Amino acid sequence: MKKLFVIGGMGAGKSTARKALVEQGLPYVDLDHVGHEVLAWDTVKDEIHETFGDDVFGEDGAIDRKKLAAKAFASPAETRKLNRITLPRIEELFSDRIDEFERQGNKAVVVEQSVFKNRQGSLAYCADVVIAIIAPL
Questions:
Q1: φ, ψ for residue 109 (rounded to 5)?
Q2: Which long-range contacts does 43-50 make (Cβ < 8 Å, 24+ apart)?
Q3: Cβ distance 129 to 5 under 8 Å?
């Protein structure tokens, strides 16, 4: 199954490009949504609590992404801590979704990814096509 990655900065038009492909009948995975999903996993919540403390959680017990971001993106070292917790789970859930689409007989899947440094350091290592959406700031 072909994996078509749509990448680009915030507001560049990734979602619009992805929607155009999905309208042609392709399934999709939004890696931002996958990242949000893993933050609800108990194992992830436990490790986030251990690493970043109580104050990154809301009253409902869910991770408050804004509070977590304030701590986790305060320095490269803190970002690495968050990535060690979340990235393996994001990759696991992504792989499960890709496998399911392939089992369903899909010939291709669209993957929307906002954070992209290079092909080797992202889930796009498995991309058959990378579509970069570029827009001026």
A1: -140, 145
A2: 43/89, 44/85, 44/86, 44/89, 47/85, 48/82, 48/85
A3: yes
Residue 136: how many other CB atoms lie within 10 Å: 4
pTM of the model: 0.85
Instruction: Please report the pLDDT score of residue 121 as a whole number.
Output: 57
**Which pLDDT belongs to residue 115?**
65
Distance of CA 131 to the CA centre of its chain: 16
User: How much of the chain is in helix, strand and coil states, percent to nearest 5?
Assistant: 50, 15, 30
Contact between 29 and 113 (Cβ < 8 Å): no
Q: Which domains does the chain have, with CATH numbers?
A: 1-27+108-137 (3.40.50), 42-105 (no CATH)
Cβ atoms of 8 and 16 closer than 8 Å: no
With vertex at residue 33, the alpha carbon angle to CA 31 and CA 35, rounded to the nearest 5 degrees, is: 70
76-113 pLDDT, tens per residue?
999 999 999 999 999 999 999 999 999 999 999 999 98
Q: In whole angstroms, give the CA distance from residue 40 to residue 8.
A: 26
The H-or-E segment that residue 44 falls in is: helix 42-52
